[in-house]
Design a protein that fits this description.
heterodimer, A: mainly alpha, ABC transporter involved in vitamin B12 uptake, BtuC, B: Rossmann fold, 4-stranded antiparallel β-sheet, 33% helix, globular
Chain lengths: 338, 273
């Protein structure tokens, strides 16, 4: 394990930096890598650059492209880490961050925000709050009855997800079909075209913190994945740790919807890819999943904005690329998710 | 007394699983818990681990109420070895054993080389060091049971609560397990285990506790407690307990024993019973 960790994590960090730099060069307006390096040198005061050119580059790179790249990286990392955490915590390699209803809740919230207000901030707040509300409903339902905690949580999540999906349908039905309904539908397809610096940078702090907190719990995820009784007998306060993990996973998942709408499959597939590369030990798996998720979503976002003359919603591309990939991953199901 | 259950009643309000159960465990004992399916064996074991919030009665560990003890410090004393189960994730055997060090760690401290040495030494002691790099999902049931025992030892615990440890093991591994328990018991470890094999209890237990419908119906030395009457009361089958030598007994089901002991009548299968 230690050997793998020693070279894989730095390699993935290097890959992430390269992907991000390369993505900065991609776009309608051509900017070379050389120029990007010079721009950053100039902004650090180590180089000089023509004033107009500098302002133009500043606009393109820092105001348009970088927020989008940061958003893609953070969303990819957040969904992958919460997916990996949920898979270990629920001892089930087939669950995704949507398990407890956070994505359904946040989608409903965003749609509701769109019909009650024109303010983008209201839409985002509604998405965030309803994402949390959906998970609270799931946890609340699970607490109604005694029994296997994990099973009750999963059932609570199914009920909560179904509830918020129905509520979303109501909102869609009531929405104005000429303006609001298309906006809702496009939003639910997931995409980063609206990810501007004003949204991304404030959200990146809690997302980053949430990801780091989940990473800190990696060792405990290993133990939770052995089952509640074993974890308890190893001196772990299972209920409390699980609630902390659910809180952080919900926080970062809800924020991904706030930034980029519904982006499916990443939280399910990337943990599997990471597991194939480094094995199931969460101490290595979690950071690996975060980095691969970030690289993957940055790359997919490049495809979605450049492949065709019009932008294809990111959520559609992740699904289309994810599904064949998942069929390949299924090969491993037989071998016990090594 | 190491571990004491006093008048414990636990279960669903309308249907208690344990009725007024009292049990005292001495240090260094092997206690075998016998009882039919659904008699409350697992519930009793989990109660002794402090997993259940009991309605009546109390459980004391070294004289202090188990519910008042800190989970971590309890884990350094009592370990739970669950029934073998299908694991979902293919952790390396050594990583599973290393999990036993978690009650010795604070939130931010990492596993050290010393922890790794303890884990490896335990694997070596149980003669499964060669498995250390193997995925936990792809070793045999017996090896998985030994891995869980190794983890329990790595915890630093001296009291092991084992839920049907022989379940699912082949004959050779069952014997290996019982031999292992005897050796560890000589070193001062305490075992409380449930089993479906009265023979196992006769062979290695210091004490046998019989549980039926949530009540203890017998508690004592194996030779005194494992009798035809008690086995009939527990399982509803007639079983003879034979002495092979002065101090060694085996159980033989009466109907099967009769048939096998009268070979001349074997042709008329079973009709002499």
């Amino acid at each position: 394990m230690s050997v793998k960790m020693n070279f894989r994590i730095p390699f993935l960090i290097f890959l992430l930096v390269c992907t991000a730099l390369l993505s900065l060069t991609l776009g309608k307006y051509e900017v070379t890598l050389n120029e990007i390096v010079r721009f950053f040198a100039a902004s650090a005061g180590m180089d000089t650059m023509d004033g107009d050119r500098y302002a133009l580059l500043r606009n393109i790179l820092l105001d348009i492209r970088l927020p989008r790249i940061v958003a893609a990286g953070l969303i990819g990392a957040a969904l992958s880490v919460s997916g990996a955490a949920f898979q270990s915590m629920f001892i089930n390699p087939l669950v995704s961050p949507a398990l407890l209803g956070v994505l359904a809740g946040a989608s409903f919230g965003a749609a509701l925000g769109m019909i009650v207000s024109d303010s983008w901030f209201v839409v985002q707040s509604c998405a965030f709050v309803c994402g949390f509300a959906a998970v609270l409903v799931a946890v609340g339902i699970a607490r109604l009855y005694q029994g296997d905690r994990l099973l009750m949580l999963i059932l609570g999540g199914i009920i909560s997800g179904a509830l918020f999906t129905s509520l979303l349908s109501i909102v869609k039905y009531l929405a104005d079909p000429y303006n609001q309904l298309p906006a809702i539908v496009y939003w639910l397809m997931g995409g980063l075209s609206l990810a501007d610096a004003g949204t991304v940078y404030p959200a990146s702090l809690p997302i980053g913190a949430g990801i780091l907190c989940l990473l800190l719990f990696s060792r405990y995820l290993n133990i939770l994945s052995m089952g509640d009784d074993e974890a308890k007998s190893l001196g772990i306060n299972v209920g409390r740790i699980r609630m902390i993990l659910i809180f952080f996973a919900t926080l970062i998942s809800a924020l991904t919807v706030v930034i980029g709408g519904l982006i499916g499959w990443v939280g399910l597939i990337i943990p599997h890819v990471a597991r194939m590369l480094v094995g199931p030990d969460n101490r290595v798996l979690m950071p690996t999943a975060a980095l691969i998720g970030a690289v993957y979503l940055i790359a997919v976002d490049d495809v979605s904005r450049l492949l065709f003359s019009v932008e294809v919603p990111l959520g559609i591309v992740t699904s289309l690329m994810g599904i064949p990939f998942f069929v390949l991953v299924l090969k491993n199901a037989r071998k016990g998710w090594a | 007394m190491l571990l004491v259950a006093e008048n414990v009643t636990f279960g669903y309000p309308d249907k208690p699983v344990l009725h007024d159960v009292s049990l005292a465990v001495r240090r260094g004992e092997i206690i075998s818990l016998l009882g039919p399916n659904g008699s409350g064996k697992t519930t009793l074991l989990k109660t002794l681990l402090g997993f259940h919030r009991i309605e009546k009665g109390r459980v004391l560990f070294e004289g202090r109420s188990i519910s008042s003890l800190d989970l971590k410090s309890l884990a350094r004393s009592i370990a739970y070895v669950p029934q073998i189960h299908r694991a979902s994730f293919a952790y390396r055997v050594v990583d599973v054993v290393l999990m036993g060090r978690i009650p010795h760690k604070s939130f931010f401290s990492r596993y050290t080389d010393e922890d790794m040495d303890i884990a490896l030494a335990t694997l070596d002691k149980l003669s499964i060091l060669h498995l250390k790099e193997r995925p936990y999902t792809r070793i045999s049931g017996g090896e998985r049971q030994l891995t869980l025992i190794a983890r329990a030892m790595t915890q630093g615990a001296h009291t092991f609560i084992m839920d049907e440890p022989a379940n699912g093991l082949d004959y050779g591994n069952q014997i290996k397990l019982l031999e292992g328990l005897m050796d560890l018991c000589d070193e001062g470890y305490t075992f409380i285990k449930s089993t479906h094999f009265p023979d196992h209890a006769l062979w290695v237990a210091d004490r046998v506790v019989m549980l039926k419908e949530g009540r203890i119906i017998a508690d004592g030395a194996p030779d005194d407690v494992i009798t035809s009457e008690n086995l009939f009361a527990l399982y509803g089958r007639e079983v003879d307990v034979h002495s092979l030598r002065e101090s060694f007994k085996v159980c033989i089901p009466r109907k099967i024993g009769k048939c096998r002991c009268a070979p001349s009548k074997r042709d008329k299968k079973y009709d002499n019973v």
